[in-house]
Amino acid sequence: MEQLQVDPQNSLSLIQNKLSELNALEPEDSQLDAHRQRQANLIVASFELGDRVLLSDASKLATDPRLRTYVVHAMHPDRIDLTTFLPLILEGHEDGAMRNVALLAAWHHTGVPLSSTLQDRLTQRLREIHRDDPDAESHSVSGLLLRNLGHEVVADEGDLTKQEFDASRDWYVNDSRQTMVVLRPHCFRVDGYTAPPELSYDFAISSTEVRLDSFRTFNPDHAQDETYQVTNHNVPAAGVLIFRAAKYCNWLSRKEGIREEEWCYPPDSEITVKNCYPVSGFETKSGYRLPLSFEWEYACRAGSTTSRFFGENVRLMNYYGWHKKTSDSLINPVGKLLPNAFGLFDMYGNVAEPCIENSTANRYVTRGESCFRVADEMDSSTTGPADPQGLGRLQGFRVVRRIED
């Protein structure tokens, strides 16, 4: 990079010409990842030389997310200094997509020393984004960075529960301090992507798997095998039978003041290991429940049509999902890796997530796989069997609820 900066204008022109040549090519599928990686490296180099336009274009969501993904990872400490792109976070400009890419890239720079003044400015700005920005990806990644900087966001989330639901936001914090990401399939626009026709309604999904502390507030007697997790702090609830997850959903609905006729499961006295399915017409009700399988996939894909929400390169799974190699088959705390473009953490790995197969509600499947699985087995579309009577030590869950206009 130092050589390029000797004559920045000429270097920028050369980079832009090379990028134009690459853009004109149509590589085979087997070469597409390497092609996108080369494009990303040139885009980051052009940004270092003062051109923001290319980075802005590459930051937009696309059905093939590989260019955006590789740009994030090209902004690694070995490649670019944090202070070079920190203005994208600190400035209050309108290009939210480019700022989100900078936030995601900053995750790679955790532990990089900053001056106390710059550290304070960054912390203040991250708190502003986490508290005020309506975009769910911005909210999730700013919270992740704050935690990495050693700042607890629990108190902030406690304050956010007191706010009234704001339809202009893509997220809210419920009474159990769970961040819920609001998805509006009929409003979501990415060229080339079409939401499933069944998704004609808005719904909210928890940004993380249900945490152990939240589940034990509901069920203090829940026993969890600590030999299957790296810590007790902020890990997901695991070893949860589906009938107990259903009762937890009723508990959340009751706690939120949702009318009983809007609950998605029968009364607790009627829920058993064998009878743990939603009531008839549950998909039109606003109470908490487990996701429908197609809701989970829509939420996971975040507008992508590739096998994974970050692209096709399974080696990148290390940044997004806990799998057998990176976790030693142990459950990790939620929300430590990068989220998808909807701001959802751990959609792959950590604990497997049961979903309702379809609106007939007579069968469950699992999504996302667990940390016991290898990365190759994790993607956005694969389903596995879920036995309501089987106790899977690495089975957790995520909750959803329908949102009315």
Tags for this model:
2 domains, paralog of FGE (formylglycine-generating enzyme), 405 residues, three-stranded antiparallel sheet, 13 helices, alpha+beta, five-stranded antiparallel sheet, single chain
Write up what this structure looks like.
There is one protein chain. A hairpin with a 5-residue loop joins strand 1 and strand 2. Strands 1-2-3-8-4 form a 5-stranded antiparallel sheet. A 3-stranded antiparallel sheet has the order 5-6-7, covered by helices on one side. Helix 1 packs antiparallel against helix 2 (32-48) and helix 2 (32-48) packs across helix 3. The protein has helices spanning 8-24, 32-48, 53-59, 66-74, 82-90, 96-106, 116-132, 136-148, 154-160, 212-218, 242-255, 293-301, 324-327, and strands spanning 171-173, 179-183, 202-206, 288-289, 353-356, 364-367, 383-385, 400-403. The longest helix is centred in the first third of the chain and has 17 residues, at 8-24. It has 13 helices and 8 strands. It is an alpha+beta fold and 405 residues long. The model has no long low-confidence stretch (mean pLDDT 93). It has 2 domains: 4-151, no CATH class; 179-403, paralog of FGE (formylglycine-generating enzyme). Helices cover 35% and strands 7% of the residues.
